[in-house]
Amino acid sequence: MAATISEIAAEANVSSALVSRVLNNKPGVSPENRAKIQAVIDKHNYIPSAIARSLVNQKTSTIGIVMETLTNAFFFDFIDGVQRKAEDLGYSVFFCNGNNELDRVLDYVDYFSQGRADGIIAHYSRLENQFYESIKRVSNFVIVEGSVPGKVFNSVQVNNFEGAYRATKFLIDMGHKSILHFTGDMDFCCSVERMNGFLKAMNDHSLPVDNAVIYTDFLENIAYDKMKGLIAHNNIPDACFTGADKTAYGILRAMFEHGLSAPADMALIGYDGDVPDSRDIVFPKLTTMRQPFYELGQEAVRLVVRAIDNPDASPVTTVLNAELVRGETV
Description:
Elements: H1 5-12, H2 16-23, H3 31-43, H4 50-57, E1 62-67, H5 76-88, E2 92-97, H6 102-113, E3 119-123, H7 129-135, E4 141-144, E5 155-158, H8 160-173, E6 179-182, H9 189-204, E7 213-214, H10 220-232, E8 239-242, H11 245-257, E9 267-272, E10 287-290, H12 293-309, E11 317-320, E12 323-325
Parallel strand pairs: 1-2, 1-3, 3-4, 4-5, 5-11, 6-7, 6-8, 8-9, 9-10
Antiparallel strand pairs: 10-12
Helix pairs in contact: 1-2, 1-3, 2-3, 5-12, 8-9, 10-11
């Protein structure tokens, strides 16, 4: 049977409080007593309970990660960035899958807020104030890719507006004048920001925006159907910028079925750095605005640990830029 703190204290002829101080590397122990206590600890190969340690330190050394989904390979780089940075800083991470359901996401936020984690990182970008009202009750939290107008909190953002502006301007600088934007899911902040970046670039270059926005989502099928409609009516633009890569793959699928290709018949730029759902087509390498997911995860951990270590520190918003990765579609 493993020794207890009381037994270690009795064998070392000291108080249990001194043993606890040595176990938690606290001051207030003479060098002689520290060496004597450590010798008994080593003799019994004593490993303190994580729960007991957290009661002493009032710290779990755990960060709760709440995500809308853990099943999309799209987020794997983010997960990797979170885990590696947390390990570097001495924290364990506990990932929870919200399964794209707000109630489930809120349940996990509530779970972690009850002393089960020192801080929470939430990847949540839907336009829902209810989420913010829930997470703001947590002492230390960071929201990734989500914003609430008028509220200040620790967050990590991608400059979606700037990325969309840059992608659209890239197409304009290539000489394209008839450019469409297929949006992402408009329930998400990022889709609104990307649409606004597109419109600003078009307006800045005096290009027409009437009927230039086509509303879709983050999947292939709606974009596929919308592009088929454009082809049927011979309304193919010079170029297209999409709010998500999967949307772009839907467009490419429709073009492929009608004997068209990018960029020969229409230039195409996506957004994200994602992979297609369809496996029955060999897609060209998509030109895209690739999000820095690994860096997003690393920065989110840095900010939440900063908040844990410095409770009075002012909130910080870190903004990262997407990278234009040129493929075969422009």
